[in-house]
Amino acid sequence: MSRIKYFLMPILLFSLNVFAGEMPLKILQPSGKQAYQNGWASFVIKAEPKIVKELKIEVGGQGYPIELKEEKDIYCKSVPLSLGINMITVKASDKNGTGYEQKSELYFTSPVHKEFKYPPMEFADFSFHTKEQEKFCQECHNMVSNEKKGVAFEDVTQSNCYGCHKQITSEKFGHAPAVNWLCTSCHNHEPDGRYIKADSKYPVIKEINKQCYLCHEKKRKLWLKKKYQHEPMDVGRCNKCHNPHASSYEKFLRKPEWELCTSCHLDKIEGKHVISSFRKNDHPTHNVKDPSRPGKNMSCISCHNPHASDSRSMLDAEGTNAIKLCSKCHKK
Ligand code: HEC
Ligand code: HEC
Ligand code: HEC
Ligand code: HEC
Ligand code: HEC
Ligand code: HEC
Ligand code: HEC
Ligand code: HEC
To answer: Are 205 and 214 within 8 A, CB to CB?
Structure first.
């Protein structure tokens, strides 16, 4: 068996060489058909400097030109993804204007967009940080973590992770451990953990709440002693609602409050809720001012605690009394 493999090797190498001679362009990373949980994908492209005179990446109707340098053959660039399927084209042309193209198809998933929750079968989850894959990058990038446990970087650009991952904290509201580049406070191997991306140097733990509670211990004490816990929290997926790194919404929510809740509770979009059974009009759940939260509009969390409560239906009121809830906003 192994003898056959060795025998085939030179033929394989030879045929790859021929291919490289014809196509002066190759996508080294990503390997294609991968599923992403973040809105950025890093491309590493090999372009033959003697031939390629122009180079760009196209995604979602947008072009990202790459500046070429003499004799340089490796180019790296992160591009933004849209939810769902992204067809990405790397385009090059030579001095005669002849074009060359390589394509890569990637999928961007989201736990709170029903239609993008699960990628189609052909898109696989993947781990980038394995020994083999890091080997090539090592020539130019420092692949070792220089993080001191619990000590924020004074200058985050000094983190060895920053150069390749800077986009991950670029959104307006950033989570403290991420914006301080304490990445391994969440991405590390615990002795008894079960992981997504288990073969990565920087895995993601399945029951992420364990990791959240390491720092949010007070919340754990507060929420777990309540009678009722919201199901997605109870199963440990804080990251269903919160982006662990950063987001353009307060508290790094994945969507604005009302949209977040209604992405799972579709039946509440119509607003048939609270008092609809005995009145012609529905109780407003959005688009009007919330008297109990100055400066904010009504939303689901005007009446519900998103995490836990002593009241049935997780009402945001002392005790278990719905009438007490009404009096938060309706005096008399
Ligand atoms: C030949 C040297 C070289 C190799 C090999 C290399 N890189 Fe890079 N990479 C660079 C340089 C130089 C930059 C900075 C580019 C700049 O700032 O314009 C960079 C930047 C990046 C960026 C940031 C791009 C952006 O748009 O923010 C990513 C991501 C990246 N590299 C990933 C990788 C990965 C993954 C590998 C291994 C598969 C790799 N690189 C291998 C030289 C290299
Ligand atoms: C040479 C560039 C490079 C450097 C340096 C780098 N990463 Fe990555 N990392 C990547 C790429 C490429 C991916 C795949 C996802 C993507 O395209 O952004 C990735 C993925 C990840 C993932 C998802 C799990 C996985 O293995 O796919 C985590 C977590 C991560 N990186 C953390 C880190 C941390 C922490 C550091 C610093 C110690 C770091 N990275 C340094 C390029 C880099
Ligand atoms: C508070 C915990 C936490 C911190 C801190 C954190 N991460 Fe993550 N990270 C996660 C979780 C959870 C996921 C799984 C995907 C998700 O929930 O969005 C993830 C996923 C990722 C991914 C994979 C995204 C993909 O496309 O599949 C990358 C890359 C990553 N993290 C890089 C980093 C880097 C770099 C840092 C430091 C700046 C960092 N993370 C800090 C919790 C964290
Ligand atoms: C390494 C410590 C650490 C870990 C792990 C951690 N956090 Fe945090 N988190 C902080 C710090 C520090 C703050 C900012 C201070 C504060 O408001 O508590 C913060 C703030 C927050 C806030 C905003 C609080 C506010 O009132 O504005 C949210 C939401 C949050 N974290 C959610 C999470 C989630 C979800 C996880 C798990 C995926 C997590 N955190 C894991 C340290 C951590
Ligand atoms: C169903 C969605 C959802 C889940 C799941 C969820 N959160 Fe939240 N979280 C929210 C919303 C919405 C807010 C904003 C509340 C507000 O502004 O009053 C919030 C606020 C927070 C805050 C800051 C405000 C506060 O209440 O102290 C922290 C810290 C936090 N969440 C941590 C977590 C942790 C840790 C988990 C997992 C154990 C988790 N969250 C799971 C939706 C969620
Ligand atoms: C990721 C999906 C998801 C998101 C996002 C979500 N929920 Fe839920 N919620 C559930 C599930 C699952 C249940 C339990 C099954 C059920 O009753 O539908 C539940 C139950 C509830 C209940 C009923 C609890 C009971 O005791 O009967 C309330 C109230 C609730 N959610 C409010 C909210 C609010 C408010 C938000 C926004 C902050 C929200 N949910 C966001 C999945 C979600
Ligand atoms: C004005 C206060 C108020 C607002 C705003 C509100 N709710 Fe409720 N919600 C209630 C009350 C009161 C109950 C309890 C009804 C009962 O037990 O019969 C309830 C019950 C629920 C339940 C459990 C029973 C059921 O009907 O399925 C869910 C789930 C729920 N709400 C989700 C939401 C979501 C999602 C939003 C935002 C779109 C929202 N609520 C906005 C007051 C409110
Ligand atoms: C977080 C604040 C808040 C809570 C809690 C609340 N409401 Fe309201 N309610 C409002 C607002 C805002 C309006 C709209 C007032 C307006 O249109 O000017 C409203 C309107 C109403 C109306 C009039 C609806 C219409 O036809 O215009 C009724 C009846 C009502 N609420 C009953 C209740 C009951 C019963 C409860 C407790 C189960 C409750 N509300 C809890 C904020 C709240």
So the answer is: no
